[in-house]
Design goal:
This protein is of the alpha+beta class. It has eleven helices and 17 strands. The chain has a single domain, classed as Alpha-Beta Complex (tRNA-splicing ligase RtcB). Its cofactor is Mn(2+).
Length: about 400
């Protein structure tokens, strides 16, 4: 490609190349080493693609696309299986929003349980939640998985469908460049997906202890299942369930947020522009005529013409993008700005005054508990977008006016 923007980040001692869209963005040494580790595995390839929001993760680097042949690495998918974004454009305009958005934020927080622990769950799930589980066969499918793997807990399924969670998950009301009002949210498969991911990561480690390897495995978090093994099929089935649950969770949350907005804002309709995409998942795909298992850990599918979402942070812009279908990135792009500070470092280095200044234009939490999500904890979204203009084109630029964090 004449307009390619990636750099070759060679893995010493490995024939597997690493292609990185990292020009103008920081890439810490620990993340580089993690990328080298995964590139040494004989079933990884034909190359690894690294997105500009790349940073250190558990097992595999966040912001990476890892193709594998005949094997799957549960820790590369992670425990927030199916985590992703949803966005919808409404017919509301900026002038339809009240000057003070505090009441709307409170309404959304009441309508959608936020945070971790029991406070972030439904006290009594509605009939609508049960209907969604039944109609989608999610409950039935999970029952079949649990019948084979009884250690997987399933008691949170109905209590957490339609809930936000904590950490970097959020709900936002945004304005685009024309003044149209959007709703955008970020969440995944919640506690059940976490339990499924953690369970299979541990099973992969147990299998690793029984394997005779003809190669060095530099990190036990790269423990894997091989195609043809019962646990391979069981994991694929479970991870597919968690991805479907995550998508349904975003749909349920979106419906609840829109219902709260209808209570407090002028009448509105939804426009056709809507997106619901994963950025932590694995699926079979064909690239260069070869069928691969493609794991995107903090990366979004960006096939030619496909819409995606790249969020910034609590105080910066986000983007609705259209994929350009780059074969070098396995048709992928970044999933956000990417952390530049660990949560611990952010809490130590960012002051409450700095956080309040950075989010002055947003109706959001401005207390010490969200310091680790402050804009300074993230890379420059402008630099991240500039590093991947060969992967996506910007369709809409969104500026948040309200942000809900767990």
């Amino acid at each position: 490609m004449s307009n390619q923007q990636y750099e070759l980040l060679h893995a010493e001692g490995s024939a597997t190349p690493i292609k990185g869209w990292v020009h103008g963005v920081p890439l810490e040494d620990s993340a580089k080493q993690q990328l080298r580790n995964i590139a040494t595995l004989p079933f990884v390839g034909p190359w690894v693609a690294v997105m500009p929001d790349v940073h250190l993760g558990k097992g595999a680097t966040v912001g990476s696309v890892v193709p594998t042949r005949g094997a799957i690495i549960p820790a590369a998918v992670g425990v927030d299986i199916g985590c992703g974004m949803a966005a919808v454009r409404t017919t509301l305009r900026a002038s339809d929003l009240p000057d003070n958005l505090a009441q709307l934020r409170s309404s959304i927080e009441r309508g959608v349980p936020v945070g971790n622990g029991r406070g972030g769950e439904h006290g009594k799930p509605s009939d609508g939640i049960h209907a969604m589980l039944v109609e989608s066969r999610l409950a039935e499918r999970l029952g079949a998985i649990k019948a084979k793997h009884r250690k997987i807990r399933t008691d949170k399924v109905d209590r957490q469908l339609g809930t936000l969670g904590g950490g970097n998950h959020f709900i936002e009301v945004c304005l685009d460049e024309s003044g149209a009002v959007w709703v955008m949210l970020h969440s995944g498969s919640r506690g059940t997906g976490n339990l499924i991911g953690s369970y299979f990561i541990e099973r992969a480690r147990e299998e690793l202890a029984q394997r005779v390897l003809g190669f060095d495995l530099p990190d036990k978090d790269l423990a894997f299942f091989l195609e043809g093994e019962p646990l391979f099929d069981d994991y694929v089935e479970a991870v597919s369930w968690a991805q479907d649950y995550a998508r349904a969770n975003r749909e349920a949350m979106m419906a609840r947020v829109l219902a709260e907005m209808r209570h407090r804002l002028p009448k509105f309709q939804l426009e056709q522009m809507a997106v619901n995409c994963h950025h932590n998942y694995v699926q079979k795909e064909t690239h260069g005529g070869e069928e691969l298992l493609v794991t995107r850990k903090g990366a979004v599918s960006a096939r030619a013409g496909e819409l995606g979402i790249i969020p910034g942070s609590m105080g910066t812009c986000s983007y609705i993008v259209r994929g350009k279908g780059s074969p070098d990135s396995f048709h992928s792009c970044s999933h956000g700005a990417g952390r530049v500070m660990s949560r611990t470092a952010a809490r130590q280095q960012i002051t409450l005054a700095q956080h309040r200044e950075a989010t002055a234009h947003v109706e959001c939490r401005k207390d010490a508990a969200v310091i680790d999500e402050s804009p300074a904890a993230y890379k420059s979204i402008d630099a991240v977008m500039a590093a991947q203009t060969d992967l996506v084109e910007v369709v809409h630029t969104l500026r948040q006016v309200l942000c809900v964090k767990g």
